[in-house]
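SEQUENCE-TO-STRUCTURE ENTRY
===========================
Question of interest: how does this chain fold, as expressed in backbone structure tokens?
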Amino acid sequence: MKALVISGGGSKGAFAGGLAEYLISVQKREYKLFIGSSTGSLLVPLLAIGKIDKLKAVFTSVTQSDIFSNCPFIIKKSNGIYKTSINHWGVLKMFIKGQKTFGESENLRKLIVNTITETDFARIQNLQHEVVVAVSNLSTMSVEYKDSKECSYHDFCDWIWASTSLVPFMSLVIKNNFEYADGGMGDIVPIQYAIHKGATEIDVIVLRNKGDLKHKDPARNALDLTGRVFDFMLKQIANDDLTIGRLEGQNKK
């Protein structure tokens, strides 16, 4: 069985969509299993039903306001370079409201519903393919894998939302009395799960900069430092996932 695994990677999702289009449309790769984590979870449902044009439209037009209902950042472009600072007022409002995160990403949930319609979901469920997204359960400190065939439409949209919610910057998703967050926090490149599901041939799209050893300027503030720490942790998790995947694959031969 062939599987396509797409990692997390934020805005790099547009690159993953283009590469997946090449694999499916040009290389004629026929996958029976699609697995996504974080950003990857936004991609795999539409890739499974061939809605590549819709993916292009979304990933080339999405803005911060499409994601955040309360953005913890202020992003400005100066001399062609994007600079990020803290939205102090927005973060303060979250503290006043007694929220657990610095920002809210309710708009992303709406974007998911508008992008993956009930008609799209019905097509996904009628396929012989499996479409799976990874989520991190912070209540049980474990990773869970949600199969579209075992979910209702709105539940699956919630799982995609949870898989893409990088806390504490985005919403903490409460579902079934559990707290859920970004799938990449536990399994950013879910190769091992693909092998567990019986995949014998796996194409993996990893959304990260290769060999990026550029010296970074000192962190400007606490939020900048927190973001940098998360970036570092996710890169190490990705390295571990790739190593484990290779070892699992070798053991299966």
The longest helix spans residues 222-252. The mean pLDDT is 85. The chain is about 45% helix and 20% strand.
